[in-house]
UniProtKB/TrEMBL annotation:
PANTHER family: RIBONUCLEASES P/MRP PROTEIN SUBUNIT POP1, RIBONUCLEASES P_MRP PROTEIN SUBUNIT POP1. This is POP1 protein. One of its GO terms (cellular component) is ribonuclease MRP complex. The lineage of its organism: Eukaryota, Metazoa, Chordata, Craniata, Vertebrata. It holds the Pfam family POP1_N. GO terms for biological process: tRNA 5'-leader removal.
Amino acid sequence: SKKQAEKAVHQKKEQSKTKCRKARRRHINLVAEFNHRQRKNIWLETHIWHAKRFHMVKKWGYCLGNSPTEKSYRACYRAMTKHCLLQDLSYYCCLELKGKENELLKQLARICSADTGLTFQEACCLSGRFEGSLNLYRADRYPEDMLGPVTFIWKPRDGSENRQLWIWVHPALKQDILRELKAIFQCSEPEEICITEPVTMSVQEEKQLEVVSSLGNKRKKEDKEGEKAVPVKKIIGDGTRDPFQSYSWIAQTTGIAISDRSMEILRYRLIGPLSHSVLTETLKAASIQTV
């Protein structure tokens, strides 16, 4: 009987330590836990949705959905052929170039060739109406030393000679291509340094935090995952970028600026005959007010 009484007391102690599901899944704790879990492999914004339905793999510094857990291949095929299927391609890295158009085209011509197809100065792409794709090579080394395939988008002209170009590269090729771009434009000086900073909480989250802090001692978490973890630090960067190193460089002679915009610009691919209909219903044109 004495052993049973001790066992009962021990069980009560264990039960008192475990929190209810609602307490364990409080938003402020989830954010801290999610940030902790993606220190090595960054999650896409659609990660939770994919994690519930896909086998996840860790590649190129990201956590990506590889194959569905259910037999949904027919549903995906049906969506592609008759409706609309969306893919999250946000793990692709975006390199942004800013500067004078002639300076950009002069140096970019060194890492591509018209023999392989269109180049950065193709009229339909240069206007900003269409996305282009090409193969990049090391400067003045064509047809040897290919770096890999990329896609690019010019920001439409605004009347100025300064232009903006986005180059999308696979994360496995990102470091080599970024190194080559910095070399041909002679960008070595960091324009700004990325520093982690606290997340700005919404009014609703602040109210939730006030409610949590006003509850009794039983609801308060005193361990390192609780009150001490607030404010939550946001993760800046992606699987191919060190958050404590500079992510923007500028050339002192030409003023050309290169910025690593990976995971700052999301990218989705819509496949299927109803893709345009989905975009039309989703995106609404903003009314431009002229002063």
